[in-house]
UniProtKB/TrEMBL annotation:
Ranges where the Membrane protein NfeD2 N-terminal transmembrane domain occurs: 6-96
Residues passing through the membrane, by range: 6-28, 63-88
Protein name: Membrane protein NfeD2 N-terminal transmembrane domain-containing protein
Keyword list, A-Z: Membrane, Transmembrane, Transmembrane helix
InterPro entries for the chain: NA-bd_OB-fold, NfeD2_TM
Taxonomic lineage: Bacteria, Bacillati, Bacillota, Bacilli, Lactobacillales
UniProt-listed Gene3D superfamilies: Nucleic acid-binding proteins
Organism of derivation: Enterococcus mundtii
Amino acid sequence: MIGGIAIITIYWYVLLICAGVAVLLVIFGDVFDFDGPIDPMLIVPWLTFTSLLGYLGESLTDQSSLVIFVISAIIATVLVFLLNFYVLMPMKHAESTLSTSEKTLEGQIATVVTPIPIQGMGEIQLKSVTGSISRPACFYTPQEKMIGRGEKVLIIEVRDRVCYVTPYESMLKM
């Protein structure tokens, strides 16, 4: 007993409070950026695991409360380390979109959807594993003739979502 309150009751209340705080962190965790030495995204799960394991240890075993707390803290530390290493860190470094960046389009071969006039814009389409994207396109250098629908072009540069292209000539002759 601590202060007249049973230890199992303390574990239970800490577990409930941490579960509520965990829900709030899931909802509002991106709003706050914790760069300090103590990250709530790691402390709250540690307290939650420790209180859960302590509650289970107190209710299911006859060990002393200190032994149960130490074992619970060690297991919680390992679980939080694994949570941080395999879930939180990859999520912090993950891209939030499947779309490609404009720089990755440069050097790609695309198909003309809307013919590109000598001085003006047309439309090209790129197909990839994640789907296809269409972008407006115009010539990178002055050309003598327009490019018709279905022809291949090479993307040289992308500026302001407009692809600057040249006619694509395959080096392989079949």
